[in-house]
Amino acid sequence: MKLLKFDIIDSTNTYGKTNFDTLEDKTAIAADRQTHGKGRFNRVWVSENSENIYLSLILKPKNTQHIANFTQYMSVAAAKVLEEYDVVPRIKWPNDVLINHKKICGILSEGVLKNNKFEGLVLGIGINLNCDEQTIKNIDKPATSLNIETGEKINKEEFLKKLLKTFFENYEKAAECGFECFRQEYLGYADFLGKQIYIQNNDNDEKKQYFARDIDNQGNLVVVDEQNNEKVILSGDLIY
C-alpha cells in the first residue's frame, strides 16, 4: 500500500479519478482539508477541519465482479475501528456509519471507465474525528464526531493507520467473494432490519415506505411494501 498525503486538495476522490491511470492498486490519498469534498447524491462533505479523515483509495482488483460492494466493506472496516474507541457504531444501509443515530462517517465510490471498460474504483471516506459542537450543529443532518462521543481528542494518524490496516487485511478476499464473505459482520452492525423505513433516491424524490426485512448476499436491501409485496432495493437513501 502506498500513501499520498496532501495539506489541501479539491477532493481526494477527484484527484484519484484524474490520476487513476498512473496510480497503483491500493494507493491511499489523504488530505488535511478539501475545498470541494463530495458526498452521495452530489451532497457536500464539510472538509475544513484538518483533524478529520478525508481519504480515497485506488482499487484495481483482478476480479471486479464484486467491486460495488466495497462501500459496504469499508463501512464494516470503519465500524470495527470505531469500536476500539469504546463507542457503539451502527451501519445505515447501504454504507453510512452512525453513533447514537447520528452520522459520523460517509462513503462515496466512483467507478472509472476507459473505452467502455471498467478499470476500477475510487473509494472515498470521510470520518468526523475531532469537531467542535458548533460545526456539528451547522451540518444539515444529524451528525456527530468521535471526540464528542468519547470526550477525548482523537489521534488522526493513529486512526488512519488502523483504518487502512483493517480495510486491506481482507481486501483480496472481499474482491473475490463480495458481500457474502462479510455479510454476517455487516448484519451485526445493522440496526434498521425489522423496522419501518423510508427509501428516497435523491433529496427531491418522494419518500417511499417499506418494512426492512433482510440484506441479500449481494448487499441489496430486501423490503416489503404496503401491499405486502417483497421488493429488492438496489440503491437509495434509507431514512428511519
Can you give a write-up of this model?
The chain has 240 residues and is an alpha+beta fold. The protein folds into two domains: 2-189, BirA Bifunctional Protein, domain 2, CATH 3.30.930.10; 196-239, SH3 type barrels, CATH 2.30.30. Helix content is 24%, strand content 33%. It is built from seven helices and twelve strands. The strands form two sheets. Strands 1-2-3-7-6-5-4 form a seven-stranded mixed sheet, sandwiched between helices. A hairpin with a 3-residue loop joins β4 (89-92) and β5 (96-99). The longest helix is centred in the first third of the chain and has 14 residues, at 70-83. The termini are far apart.
Give me a quick take on this structure.
Helices cover 24% and strands 33% of the residues. The protein has 7 helices and 12 strands. It starts with a strand and ends with a strand.
How many independent structural domains? Answer: 2
Q: Which CATH-level-2 architecture of the largest domain?
A: 2-Layer Sandwich
- Unreliable stretches (pLDDT < 50, length at least 5) are none
Order of helices and strands: EHEEHEEEEHHHHHEEEEE
Total number of strands:
12
- Quote the beta fraction: 25-35%
Distance separating the two termini:
38 Å
CATH superfamily of the largest domain: Bira Bifunctional Protein, Domain 2
Q: What's the average pLDDT?
A: 91
Structural class: alpha+beta
Largest sheet: 7 strands, mixed
Rg computed from alpha carbons, rounded to a whole number of angstroms = 17 Å
Helical run tally: 7
As for the CATH topology of the largest domain, it is BirA Bifunctional Protein, domain 2
CATH class of the largest domain: Alpha Beta
The percent of residues in helical segments reads 10-25%
Shape: globular
Strands of the widest sheet, in order across it, are: 1-2-3-7-6-5-4
